[in-house]
UniProtKB/TrEMBL annotation:
CC per GO annotation: plasma membrane
Organism of origin: Streptomyces colonosanans
CDD domains found in the cross-reference section: MFS_MMR_MDR_like
GO biological process, alphabetically ordered: response to antibiotic
Name assigned to this protein: MFS transporter
Amino acid sequence: MAVVARPAPAVRFGSPQGKWILLTTVLGSSMVLVDSTVVNVALPHIGRDLDASLAALQWTVNAYLVTLAGLLLLGGVLGDHFGRRRIFVLGVVWFATASLLCGFAPSTGVLIAARALQGIGGALLTPGSLALIQASFHPDDRARAVGLWSGFGGIGAAVGPFLGGWLVDGPGWRWVFLLNVPLALVCAPIALRHVPESAGGRARGRFDVLGAALGALSLALVTYALIEARGGSPAVVVTAVAGVAAGVAFVYVEKHRSNPMMPPAVFASRQFTAVNLVTLCVYAAFGGFFFLTALQLQVVAGYSALKAGTALLPTTALMLLFSARSGALAERIGPRIPLTVGPLLCAAGLLLMLRVGKGASYAVDVLPALLVMGAGMVTLVAPLTATVLASVDTAQAGLASGINNAAARAAGLVAVAALPLLAGMGPEAYRSADAFDAAFRRAMPMGAGVLVAGAVLAFATVRRPVPDGRRPECRTHGCVTAPPLEPRRGPGTPDAGQAE
């Protein structure tokens, strides 16, 4: 049953209710952000404990990304339809329950299934946290609230690998997931007590469950085909064909539905289409890089989980510190140069990772590569988001951001599936330092090549946005797995929000 909304006083930033809203949205979004960065650090320990193959470790990452990327847009629409607080709380409880299943998983099969359920919770939770701020705070305070929300979220993303490494080396990898349960036990009651319910301008009409299901199914089938392609069985070919067919069906459904999840008309903007292609290139490289690097540091360089997690902090820290300045620079000089130079710097960072092998020195071998990589990410991520928003009408900016965010996550999951295959990693590669190191050295140039392709595409297609284009509300960003998500604004969403 849809929420019946009526006007309510807008919440001010300094009020007690405003502080409670910020606390619960930061806690909720941090659960997803931390989880997206800590699992990679835990993979070697998960593999040893559950006797998992490399394919099972790939699925541990990708089962989560398939449902998150495939259902992210639907999660925002559900919040508009049924109430943003209701869907946010549902997402928190769902995510925590799935995390509990992950923490007690007796086998890789159960863990992978629980990770897929976690992704569904993340898809409900991720757009909901920002939508609550958008709907609840007074327009004069909204930018400050969003800035604080994104800043604390970036801190959570930065702390994630360090915290994950400490948990893995201490009480064990299962606590990487179990940690979400107490966070949810704090988050959900605060939301129910202190956050006003709100609904957007889509309270009537159907929502595109079929489109979401086809999109997620296509991603799942293609990912399965890539991960299992080493065996060369006929089932792989059948699955690949079925995945492509589901993708074609998704496009057909979106073109012919009256209320599509991903309206094809938004791609009428050539620049929007081009920037999303650049997004696919750069976040495919990022997804493959962080998946393989967390393993390389532990399997080959001999780092503990804590040291490996700490080693990855510079990229996130640089983004957290300088993303706002990068966005301001891009506003002055235009996005073309940052979107060309940024991927090239990231490509150089991947090539510098070729120095990381057995007995690698952090200061001499690892840190320079991560600093160059982080500088590239700082250079490109904020201009990427700004260009996406400026490429469409203001009313479609939130939708455009959701599409771009989902595209980045889909690119990452395809890279995690495809890059080990292309680099020739066998099912047991992560158990052998020599075998993994050899494949890693083949994979990094491949990722660098994809980044160079993204830079060439950006240089050829990106132009300065129109002066009245919408600017990002999330100026501070620390997540390395996807660009910042902007709030959706339905046609009936008032400035001060709506409440039950």
